[in-house]
């Protein structure tokens, strides 16, 4: 499973009912993600079969296919999954595609000779982020960045999610899902969220995906680069051009704590030779 599909799975594990009601307009009193049958090993993990029950007592399957982008073979692949679940369970199926990024080739039906197959397409890029925020449901806020006007509302949605949910793994998972999904539209948004909420997100079982995507590493490297630059600028401001040997030693530092200490020393030492002595003695 790709990280974006996995992010949606994390979000749905907490917010299935809210997502089904908002994106598909369903009234749901009970839902559960079904385990994939053993004989359907060929099914991709971006396929989410959800058994739902309505207030009227109707039971059926919502087959939600999560796609980061449109692919021409999607309708036939969805049809294959649809038929397998109908045969396996004897229940009717509502097929739907959750499209995470915009595409000009989207269709909601497939026709070829005697075959006609219709399905729902939820294109997040076509939905208004402000309307979703007005629901007041923090479960849905991780999708904001992918919606119309969502990049501008990202910080507002993140604050609302964080402030309206109690501390714990649910909040950590939703923030982690939010960071991963926002990576589809910006590399800066997930790193910005990490800078603010990293301690919370580390409680999430999905946090390893953040590190896998490199957002955490990217943020750390960015902080290290900034720390080295601050030390060099402080030395240059006080003593003029920084000698190459000292610059090389500073650039080799991989600890933010050490770089903070070196920055303090750079502001206090009497001359560059005193800094060099302290720098080499700390190696």
TrEMBL record:
This is Transposase (putative) YhgA-like domain-containing protein. It comes from Desulfacinum infernum. The lineage of its organism: Bacteria, Pseudomonadati, Thermodesulfobacteriota, Syntrophobacteria, Syntrophobacterales.
């Amino acid at each position: 499973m790709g990280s974006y599909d996995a992010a949606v799975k994390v979000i749905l594990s907490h917010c299935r009912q809210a997502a089904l009601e908002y994106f598909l307009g369903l009234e749901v009193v009970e839902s559960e993600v079904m385990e994939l049958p053993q004989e359907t090993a060929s099914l991709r993990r971006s396929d989410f079969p959800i058994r739902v029950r309505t207030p009227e007592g109707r039971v059926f399957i919502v087959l939600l296919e999560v796609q980061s982008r449109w692919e021409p073979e999607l309708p036939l692949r969805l049809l294959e999954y649809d038929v397998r679940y109908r045969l396996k369970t004897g229940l009717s199926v509502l097929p739907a595609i959750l499209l995470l990024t915009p595409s000009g080739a989207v269709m909601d039906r497939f026709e070829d000779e005697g075959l006609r197959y219709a399905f729902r397409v939820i294109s997040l890029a076509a939905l208004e982020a402000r309307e979703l925020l007005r629901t007041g449901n923090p479960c849905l806020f991780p999708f904001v960045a992918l919606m119309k006007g969502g990049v501008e509302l990202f910080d507002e949605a993140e604050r609302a999610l964080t402030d309206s949910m109690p501390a714990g793994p649910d909040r950590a998972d939703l923030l982690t899902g939010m960071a991963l999904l926002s990576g589809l539209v910006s590399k800066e948004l997930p790193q910005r969220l990490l800078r603010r909420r990293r301690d919370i997100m580390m409680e999430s079982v999905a946090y390893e995906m953040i590190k896998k995507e490199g957002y955490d590493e990217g943020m750390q490297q960015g902080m290290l680069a900034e720390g080295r630059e601050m030390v060099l600028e402080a030395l240059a401001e006080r003593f003029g051009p920084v000698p190459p040997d000292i610059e090389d030693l500073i650039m080799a530092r991989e600890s933010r704590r050490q770089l903070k200490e070196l920055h303090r020393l750079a502001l206090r030492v009497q001359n560059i030779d005193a800094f060099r002595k302290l720098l080499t003695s700390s190696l």
